[in-house]
Amino acid sequence: MGRKKNLAKHSQKNGDNQHGSTSDIDTDYDGMNISDDPNAIEYKIIHAKHPFEKRKFIESRVVTPSQRAITCCIQMNNGWASAADLLQFLQNNWSFIGKLNSKLPNNMPDTRILHINLAVKKKNIPLFIQDPNKPHYWTVNSSTDFAQLQDKTKYNIPNQQPGEVSKVEGEVTPDEPTSLEEIYKMENKDSFEAHIHEALKSYEHGVTLEELAEATKKHEGEPGLFQILPHVRRVRAVLIVKKSIGEVFEKNGVWTCYTEPTKIPEVAHTDFYPACLRTVDVTELTLDEFYNIIKSSKV
Length: 299
Known about the structure:
Strand content: 5-15%
Largest sheet: 3 strands, antiparallel
Order of helices and strands: EHEHHHEHHHEEEEHHHEHHEEH
Structural class: alpha+beta
Region (Disordered): 1-31
Strand order of the largest sheet: 3-7-6
C-alpha cells in the first residue's frame, strides 16, 4: 500500500492544478485518508475525470460522487460498461463513495438510482450515452455539440425532463431528473411521445408499427424521447417504453391502447349437475326416478 495523504488536500491539489477546475472534494472529507497508489480503487474513483471536465465544459464540483464512480467504471472497462457492471461497481464501493458526500443516503444504490445518474444532463447535454445495439451498455459522452449529437444515430441519448429536480445525492441541481418511469409518465402534451400515444388511440382495433409511423410522419423530429433516432425506430422505442409501463399493448405486431375485454366462457346450467344427471332431462323425471338416479350413482 502506498503512503496515506489527506483526501481533501490531495484531491484538490491534483484536480485543480491538472484540470483547472474546482474539485468536488470539500471540507466534509477532511480527516479521510486515501492511498496515493494509482492502482488503488479509491484513487481511481477520486481522479476519474469526465471528458466534460477535461474540456472545462463543466466544473468538477458539479459531478457527483456516484457520477464520478460511474465514469471511473466505464474508463476501467475500456470505454464501455453494462448497467449491471455499473451497479455492481457502485455497490461494491459504496462504503467509500458514500463518504465522499455526507448527504448521500446510507442505503445501497439500486437500479433506479443508477438510471437516474445515467440520465443526468449538464447544460442540456447528457453525461452518459448508450449503444442502441446493446442498450444495456453505456459510455461517457465526449461531445458537447447537441446538434452534432442529434445528427448521430449511433448512440441513444437518455431523455430528461427539463427543470426536473432530484435530491438523490442530497444535492439540488436543475440537471438532475427524477426516475425514468416518472419522466415517461410526466410527458408534455406537445411531446413526440404524446402525439404517438394520441394517434394510437384512434385505432380501435390496433395498428402496425409501420402504419403508425407513417400516420405520425408530421411529428418527426419534434421534442421528446429518443430524439436522435430515425422516425420509425423512434416510434418503436416510444411504444416499447409505454408497453413497459402498461400504457399500450402489443400482440402479433399489432399495437393498441386498448386491452381486449376478458371473455367469460358461457356455462350451461347442466354443467352444475352431477355427472349422472347431465344426459337426462330432469324436467321430465318423476320424483321417484330422480331419487333412484341419485341413489344409484351414489352422489
